[in-house]
Amino acid sequence: MEAYTPGEQPTERKYIKLNTNESPYPPSDGVIKAVNSTEVSLLNLYPDPVCKKLKNKLAKLYGVNEENVFVSNGSDDILNFSFMAFCNADTHPVKFPEISYGFYKVYAELYGVKAMIMPLNKDFTVNVEDYLGNNANVVIANPNAPTGIALTVEEIEKIVKANPDYVVLIDEAYVDFGAESCLPLIKKYDNLLVVRTFSKSRSMAGARLGFAFGSEELIRDLEKIKFSTNPYNINRLTLVAGEAAIDEDGYYTENCKAVANTREYTQNELKKLGFECTESKANFIFAKSDKIGGEELYLALKENGILVRHFSAPSICEYNRITVGTKEEMDALITAISSIIKEKNNENI
Ligand code: PMP
Description:
This protein is an alpha/beta fold. The chain has helices at residues 29-35, 52-62, 75-86, 103-110, 153-161, 216-227, 236-247, 249-272, 294-303, 327-348, and strands at 16-17, 69-72, 94-97, 115-118, 137-141, 168-171, 192-197, 210-213, 275-277, 284-289, 306-307, 319-323.
């Protein structure tokens, strides 16, 4: 089987790191304080496997009951548990878009589950009609990755409604940067699982913390999988960090706004250089230029100390996915791209 290839996490050299969609902003003060607190001296004790306090805070913030909340070691863990819980080789295959988060295909293969992989439309939008009445579970990242394009809540509701006997998992890893969450729909549909993460909008990729919302029945199934594999899968420091992050939600909301503004600014600058960008609602830009190939630009930027993410699938190999960093980082990116293209033009004269 083919394992997932994570984005590069270089240790040998310092890059402007725009390749794995992390937040350019540090965790909030309360998170740093919580991790440095007496909690460290309690590391001899196991953490709370039920994660009661964190679930309570999430339930309050998002207006749901604790029984509708699941937390785990990053949203990858929740995706993994969902494939384990809801898919099987005989009756429950899984349907997802061809261009999307690479892990969906890996989990399907790992669990021997048939993957029904649907192409995107020419403009990279998800074709909603493909997901109506499937006889399969559905997994869709919204906004999608690496395109950043989002479906509307109405479109998602259509999919959820059309598959009452199957689970529809909406992966909202990037929803906080400008798309609309379908969370309110969990009150209406018991087959919808909404998966979120602290890794992007809450500056905690290194802490590994994901959460999900769904009907009591779906959440109970996920708990059963967690308690059948690794009940202590969120460590003490991550738990207190997550709790503190919820207490300081305003800080993260402001950061998301800043990222969205920087995204628009950078896209405009890229367009001035002749780039074409998808309509991203995420904390990354998906861009291509007819002046330079996708891989060539990725390699040239790397040489210049800037890491972006390039995918070799033929339909997207001319693009690069560029995480939105600080304004200063994006100015450095634009300067670098501009001189790379100039140099290439000079070579061609
Ligand atoms: N879903 C999507 C669409 C992602 O891009 C990522 C990040 N690679 C994840 C889920 C997993 O994020 P994490 O495990 O850090 O929560």
